[in-house]
Amino acid sequence: MSKRVPKPKVECSACGAPAKIVRGSYPFRECGLPNVVLQGVELIRCSQCGNEDPVIPRLNQLMRVLALAVVCKPYRLRGEDVRFLRKYLKMTSDEFARLLHIDKTNLSKWENNHDRIGPQSDRLIRMMAVALGEGLGDELQNVIASFPRIQQARSTVRIDMDAANGSYQYA
Ligand SMILES: [Zn+2]
């Protein structure tokens, strides 16, 4: 005989109405990148106001995998990628610009896509992010080995993250 375990009651964070937990995909805009989708994630969905909050287990691990997905992406870095990696390193624009030996306004132009990042700077940023980023150091050799596959022509790609097993793929 199995006992029916009552589901825990959840409330909508926006309006406080009782909400349902469903599984689905979620555009993860909170991470600062416009093109990341969490797949198979639990969502607290409110039928009253339509608000949807993801339930993200192991957020630190998810962010680490996402940082790895950005440094391994086979297209040139975009401004939002650079900003994401700088924030992953918990660095200010001043600190980051000093390490790259560039002017802070130059970095700002990159991060806002007002100026295109040169291929050498692109690779230097990836190397810094892997070498200094939390939990990424072991990947340095793999990331450098992937450099010849970086295409300059294209820059955007969707990153699908599997929230359950912590993997990613480019869609
Ligand atoms: Zn609501």
Describe this structure in words.
This protein is an alpha+beta fold and 171 residues long. The chain has two domains: 17-55, no CATH class; 59-170, no CATH class. It has six helices and six strands. Strands 1, 2, 3, 4, 5 and 6 form a six-stranded mixed sheet that branches. Strand 2 (18-27) and strand 3 form a beta hairpin. Helix 3 (93-100) packs across helix 4. The protein is elongated. The model has no long low-confidence stretch (mean pLDDT 93). Bound molecules: zinc ion.
How confident overall, as mean pLDDT? Answer: 93
What count of domains describes the coordinates? 2
Tell me the number of strands.
6
Rg, Å, rounded = 19 Å
Shape: elongated
Strand content: 15-25%
Unreliable stretches covering 5 or more consecutive residues: none
Report the helical percentage. Answer: 25-40%
Class per helix and strand makeup: alpha+beta
Task: Report on the biggest sheet.
Answer: 6 strands, mixed
Distance between the termini: 45 Å
Bound molecules: zinc ion
Element order: H for helix, E for strand = EEEEHHHHHHEE
Concise overview:
This protein is an alpha+beta fold.
Q: What's the layout of helices and strands?
A:
Elements: E1 10-11, E2 18-27, E3 36-45, E4 52-55, H1 59-71, H2 79-88, H3 93-100, H4 104-111, H5 119-132, H6 140-145, E5 159-162, E6 167-170
Parallel strand pairs: 3-5
Antiparallel strand pairs: 1-2, 2-3, 3-4, 5-6
Zinc ion is lined by residues 12, 14-15, 17, 46, 48-49, 51.
